[in-house]
Write a structure and sequence with these properties.
With about 500 residues, the protein is of the alpha+beta class. The strands form 3 sheets. Strands 2, 3, 6, 8 and 9 form a 5-stranded antiparallel sheet that branches. Helix 3 packs antiparallel against helix 4.
């Protein structure tokens, strides 16, 4: 009988451990698959016919000068390059996003710690004294006092084996969340970089407009001087002088007003590079850049090149793992716990073998009634999964819209600029004819004023179109992901293993 009991006591723990090992391979929850999305075979706004007569911008081959991390260098503007380099160093929105990623990565490490036992130690030395007066069983009293010291050194350990994947799904959920946070860092960085480039080219456009108005004011001053000279000789009238003066003053007012917009763009750039606007300035230099050839690739690549799409897809994976966590609540939770240590009333025998004590044993907890709580929790996460899928597909659709919008802008602006340049040339010829006829006394000065207004208006429109063209180029680069791709994300394994990573 003793042999049977001994065998039973020896084999039960082994069987229990083997059973736990087999159950630990179970994984409750849905298997994750990336949600399907429809991608077009080609961009609608990009056809050979559209670019047949374009100037200043052309379609690039898919791998021709492929966009890289420092995409702004394709504009060949040293000032822009210097400003963009400061974004990563000083922009506070990026710093906040990076801190958020580090917090998300720490959550992965926190979740991973649940795979291992929790061990605690609580050494204590307690001096106790019993009361010196105590009631006896016969109603008498005793004055004998008892004082003693207790020495304890307990160790406690507990472990919840991950039998049904609750902890592993928690780790995966945290890892996917960290990946989404890292993608958010890249999306924040790309947004700020494109905002900076857009503001920079608009500032340079204001410089070009300032240059135009300065030269126009100088030309109008000469016209006023000529009109005054003709009036003093009796050839022209005072009305012509006032018309010339009005035209000059109105243009000077426009010339001064340009400074407002330029100052605002300069201050916006200061904010983006993390510098106080009061200590920042950019030298004046008119817009001279032309849109570069931008490599587009095929539409299906957009899913891998946009950090916001990557973040949305990782959030889908995160919620999918959370469904598994909720479903694991239907199964029991097993805890292995044990305690041991040394306890003695004498320091000399505290850490001796006879002073040892221990306890060990498993425990299982299973919910038998929760009024539908677990079912409702699973339904909640399944609904959140459907929501995350819809958000992911919306992000994909929005990305294609942005690419098509900027392609259409560049295509149409290229044609519009060509016609506008022709309009400027025509206005210049009209003004030259009007001035010659005025000098010959054939036409009144009013015709000159009309021709001047027409020329200035067309020149301003031409500058505005070129600003739009440059900002649309920046917008297209941003819509394509700025040279980023999902290979830059830390893998779940890297995050789970706690490898050192920098976003």
């Amino acid at each position: 009988m003793r042999d049977i009991m001994t065998c039973f006591h020896l084999k039960c723990p082994v069987c229990f451990i083997v059973t736990l090992s087999l159950l630990a391979g179970c994984m409750i929850g849905p298997t994750y698959h990336r949600p399907s999305v429809q991608t077009p075979a080609a961009y609608k706004e990009l056809t050979p016919a559209d670019f047949k007569n374009t100037e200043g911008w052309k379609k690039a081959q898919p791998r021709d000068n492929e966009l890289r991390g420092k995409w702004w260098e394709i504009f060949n503007d040293p000032q822009l390059n210097a400003l963009e380099e400061k974004v990563d160093v000083s922009n506070q929105n990026i710093a906040a996003a990076v801190a958020s990623f580090f917090a998300a990565r720490a959550l992965v490490k926190e979740a991973r710690s649940q795979l291992f036992p929790l061990v605690t130690i609580a050494p204590a030395i307690t001096r106790q004294r019993m009361p010196s007066v105590a009631s006896g069983a016969s109603g008498g009293s005793s004055s004998q006092a008892l004082t003693f010291t207790e020495y304890t050194l307990p160790f406690d350990a507990s472990w919840q084996p991950d039998l049904f994947g609750r902890i592993r799904n928690t780790i995966r959920s945290a890892a996917y969340g960290a990946q989404a946070s890292e993608a958010d860092v890249e999306n924040t960085r790309l947004t700020i970089q494109t905002d900076l480039a857009s503001d920079y080219f608009q500032l340079r456009g204001e410089d070009a407009l300032k240059q135009l108005l300065d030269s126009t004011v100088a030309a109008y001053q000469k016209s006023l001087d000529l009109t005054k000279a003709l009036y003093e000789t009796g050839i022209d009238s005072a009305e012509a002088v006032e018309q010339a003066k009005t035209q000059l003053e109105a243009t000077e007012a426009q010339d001064v007003a340009v400074g407002i917009q330029r100052a605002q763009f300069e201050h916006a750039i200061a904010l983006l590079i993390g510098q106080a606007a009061s200590t920042f300035s950019i030298p004046i230099a008119p817009l001279k850049s032309s849109p570069p050839a931008i490599p587009l690739g095929v539409p299906s690549e957009l899913l891998e090149r946009r950090p916001d799409i990557a973040a949305a897809e990782r959030l889908v994976a995160q919620v999918n793992a959370q469904v598994g966590i909720a479903e694991a609540a239907y199964f029991p939770t097993v805890t292995l716990s044990g305690a041991g240590g040394f306890e003695s009333f004498s320091a000399n025998t505290w850490l001796t073998w006879p002073a040892r004590f221990f306890s060990i044993g498993p425990a299982a907890v299973e919910t038998i009634f929760d009024a539908g709580l677990r079912r409702a929790t699973v339904e909640q996460y399944k609904a959140q999964y459907d929501q995350a899928v819809a958000n992911y597909r919306e992000a994909v659709l929005s990305a294609f819209q942005q690419v098509e919008d900027n392609l259409a802008s560049l295509r149409i602006l290229s044609e519009e600029i060509r016609h506008q340049d022709e309009a400027v040339e025509s206005a210049e010829r009209t003004l030259a004819i009007a001035e010659n006829l005025y000098k010959l006394g054939i036409d009144s000065y009013l015709n000159v004023v009309t021709a001047q207004i027409s020329l200035l208006s067309n020149q301003q429109t031409a500058i505005g179109l070129r600003i739009q063209q440059m900002t649309a180029s920046v917008g297209l680069i941003g819509a394509l992901g700025g040279g980023w791709d999902t290979s830059g994300l830390a893998s779940p394994r890297q995050l789970i293993n706690g490898e050192s990573l920098k976003p």
